[in-house]
Amino acid sequence: MTVSQTPSIPFTTTEALATLHETCETAGLASQDARLIRLGENALYVLPTHLVVRIARSVEVLGDVRKEVAVSAWLNNSGIPAARTTPHYQPLIVRGHPVTLWHLIPHSDSPRPPTTWPASYANSTA
């Protein structure tokens, strides 16, 4: 059995909101009018500037968060459409939570056609 070495802070909307405000202050972003999208394994807030603040429950998932940021960068640098992080240093650790900042993906009723994917990706999956 693995025993957590991280102090247990309940992950409530109050804790998530405090983390959001501190993150935005650190990153030079306005947190007013932020809207909670979801509170589950992560808290997701969308800012009026069309950025998404993703707050993980605990620092225990820091390795996974770092991989997500690295994979996003790799996909985008390879020309493969994927969620993009903002240029801020990431992940941030705020109040004991790994936090990442992402560009909002606009809602679309239809997926992007495969013809828009780079040929190198299409060829590697064939």
From TrEMBL:
Organism encoding this protein: Nonomuraea fuscirosea
SUPFAM superfamilies: Protein kinase-like (PK-like)
InterPro entries in UniProt: Kinase-like_dom_sf
Protein name, as recorded: Phosphotransferase family enzyme
